[in-house]
Amino acid sequence: MCTLEKRGNLFILTLTGDDEHRLSPTLIATILSTLSQVKAQVTRGSVLITISQGKFFSNGFDLAWAQAAGSKEGAAERLHHMVESFKPIVGEFLSLPMPTIAAVTGHAAAAGLLLALSHDYVFMRRDKGVLYMSEIDIGLTLPDYFTALITAKISSASARRELLMCGRKIRGDEAVKMGIVEAAHDNEDEVRKASVRLGEELTKRKWKGEVYAEIRKGLYPEVCDLLGLERKAIATASL
Fold first, then answer.
1. Which GO terms describe its cellular component (predicted)?
2. How far, in Å, CA of 28 to CA of 61, rounded?
């Protein structure tokens, strides 16, 4: 369901298997396990890039698994389970001791978009793929940490309104203008190349990972509090 490749100081996490990469309990657990492997191997200059295979970056939570519970109560309980179990993934990305890049080569919807926004940098393609928060269309409210992360990562109130309250499907160039992603590229291959290119540039900085992580957490205090992430001050020996 996902693989991890190490190229020098670059870690490449690839979502594999099911084309939609629905965030089922199994995929959530697999991603968490993979991030633990990354943390165990991190060195100065490490960078993580997340990519996917197929049409989707991720199409959100596995709603079919929730509905398979056979009752409204059971479905709601399963959806709540996925919402809660996804929290540690967002928390891990916000506390990883390295820069992170999402190469969004396909559709990123609902929790799949949250997965992308959990990274420091997001690139997407302009020829195919959209960003989409489906909750308004399917009749679900947003978990508090979803709202906090989106508010922290997307500064424009009008962009948040279009995304969350209008359910607009946003393509690459428009996502750049709205401040949701860093850049849009012509095709999947160009997105991957741009992500690797930035990753290689960042590896040269040789930042101390623990310091990087604490600065990142300091930028997003509300979502970090909701996720239970502790923050601490660090003074390096060079001071």
1. peroxisome
2. 9
- Give the separation between CA 188 and CA 172, rounded to whole angstroms: 12
Which strands, in side-by-side order, build the sheet including 183-185? 2-7, 10-15, 47-52, 100-104, 121-125, 183-185
CB–CB of 7/45 below 8 Å?
A: no
pLDDT digits (tens, 9 = 90+) for 110-158: 999 999 999 999 999 999 999 999 999 999 999 999 999 999 999 999 9
**How big is the CA angle at 27 (ends 24 and 28), to the nearest 5 degrees?**
85
Q: How many domains does the chain have?
A: 1
Domain that holds residue 135: 2-227
Query: Is 0.85 topped by the overall pTM?
Result: yes
Q: Where are the beta strands (DSSP E) in 42-197?
A: 47-52, 56-58, 100-104, 107-109, 121-125, 131-132, 183-185
Query: Considering only CA atoms, which of 163, 189, 142, 134 is closest in space to residue 20?
Result: 134
Q: Which H helix or E strand runs over 13?
A: strand 10-15
| DSSP run (H or E) holding 5 | strand 2-7
